[in-house]
Amino acid sequence: MNAMTNRATFGAGCFWGVQVSFDRIDGVMCTQVGYMGGKVENPTYEQVCSNRTGHAEVVDLRYDPDKVSYQDLLEAFWNMHDPTTLNKQGPDVGSQYRSIIFYYDEEQKKAAEGMKKKLSNSNRFSRPIMTQIVPANTFWRAEEYHQKYHQKYGGACPTC
């Protein structure tokens, strides 16, 4: 990471579709899918899908803050999934599909918490927002066949 890029990591369901959504944003320099938030080192997709590792499927991205703000990335995050469902997005069920924001510094934490509070008070959602906001820890890159999955294979995200 150079001085011109910042890092952000989000979980919003199946990481294949989330990666596509973030890749479309001008200012997002690169994305990779993987796992974060669990207790197993270097987990495999099968381990994460067992719902026993504690990891979430995430997109880890680098962005140019002169082209896109962290606030803009948060807006995109809230718009690309349903943050009111617990451990579920669409047909995908399990804690690996939870809505989660991993923050890297106090500024990101405050921005994420502030936007969550604002959205909670806005009546935009009819149910409480379930999104977790937690400190980032080790990012484990997913297997190569998961990277840019839609570009390689297209199609919908299958469940584990």
What's the Cα radius of gyration? 15 Å
Annotation, overall tally of beta strands:
8
Average pLDDT figure: 93
Main sheet makeup: 6 strands, mixed
CATH level 1 name: Alpha Beta
The shape is: globular
CATH fold naming: Peptide Methionine Sulfoxide Reductase, Chain A
Architecture overview:
The chain is an alpha+beta fold and 160 residues long. The chain has a single domain, classed as Peptide methionine sulphoxide reductase MsrA (Peptide Methionine Sulfoxide Reductase, Chain A). The chain has helices spanning 15-23, 45-49, 70-79, 106-121, 149-153, and strands at residues 6-12, 28-36, 56-63, 88-89, 92-93, 99-103, 132-135, 140-141. The protein has a 6-stranded mixed β-sheet, covered by helices on one side. Strands 4-5 form a two-stranded antiparallel sheet. Strand 4 and strand 5 form a beta hairpin. The longest helix has 16 residues, at 106-121. It is globular, with a radius of gyration of 15 Å. The model has no long low-confidence stretch (mean pLDDT 93).
List keywords for this structure.
single chain, 160 residues, alpha+beta, Peptide Methionine Sulfoxide Reductase, Chain A, six-stranded mixed β-sheet, two-stranded antiparallel ribbon, 5 helices, 8 strands, 24% strand
Layout of strands and helices, then pairs:
Blueprint: E1 6-12, H1 15-23, E2 28-36, H2 45-49, E3 56-63, H3 70-79, E4 88-89, E5 92-93, E6 99-103, H4 106-121, E7 132-135, E8 140-141, H5 149-153
Parallel strand pairs: 6-7
Antiparallel strand pairs: 1-3, 1-6, 2-3, 2-8, 4-5
Short description:
28% of the residues lie in helices and 24% in strands.
